[in-house]
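Hi support team,

I've been running sequence recovery on a batch of backbones for a student project. Most finish fine, but this one hangs at about 90% for roughly twenty minutes before it completes. I'm not sure whether the input is malformed or the queue is just slow. I've pasted the structure tokens below so you can try to reproduce it. Let me know if you need the job ID as well.

Thanks,
M.K.
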């Protein structure tokens, strides 16, 4: 499980006195804990690895937005810190699909659902998220689906 990998990496980083990794793993665990608390009231809870993957992807997206803003503002040292956190977070994500693999998956789902226009994008995205949530960045997937159906 991804959650166990994060805990083991945190312990190893503590022993190695790697403060950057320790701080990043603490942020990850805090975000996961917050998501667990949110899910307490949910009617159905998804698989644990799916929850953790969603949290990690959200954290990466937030950091990439911060990096962009810091670089525009001329704060390269802050952008570098965010890039270091992104590198630590990405270590725990499952292997991501290449654009070619994503295209094949989108084609298969679109064919299966009989999707032919942009009106069907919601159904295709829902099926794609259900089947490949941890392996695919949904913002990239959205652009690929739109191109496929457009």
């Amino acid at each position: 499980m991804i959650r166990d990998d994060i805990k083991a990496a945190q312990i190893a980083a503590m022993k190695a006195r790697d403060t950057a990794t320790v701080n990043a793993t603490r942020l990850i665990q805090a975000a996961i804990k917050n998501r667990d608390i949110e899910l307490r009231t949910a009617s159905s809870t998804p698989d644990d690895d799916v929850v953790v993957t969603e949290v990690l992807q959200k954290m990466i997206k937030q950091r990439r937005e911060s990096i962009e803003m810091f670089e525009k503002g001329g704060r390269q040292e802050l952008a570098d810190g965010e890039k270091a956190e992104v590198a630590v977070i990405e270590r725990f994500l499952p292997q991501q699909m290449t654009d070619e693999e994503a295209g094949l998956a989108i084609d298969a789902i679109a064919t299966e659902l009989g999707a032919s226009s942009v009106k069907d994008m919601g159904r295709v995205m829902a099926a794609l998220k259900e089947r490949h949530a941890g392996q695919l960045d949904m913002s990239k997937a959205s652009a690929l689906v739109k191109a496929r159906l457009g």
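--
Follow-up from support: It reproduced on our side and the slowdown came from queue contention, not your input. The two ends are 38 Å apart (CA to CA). No action needed from you.
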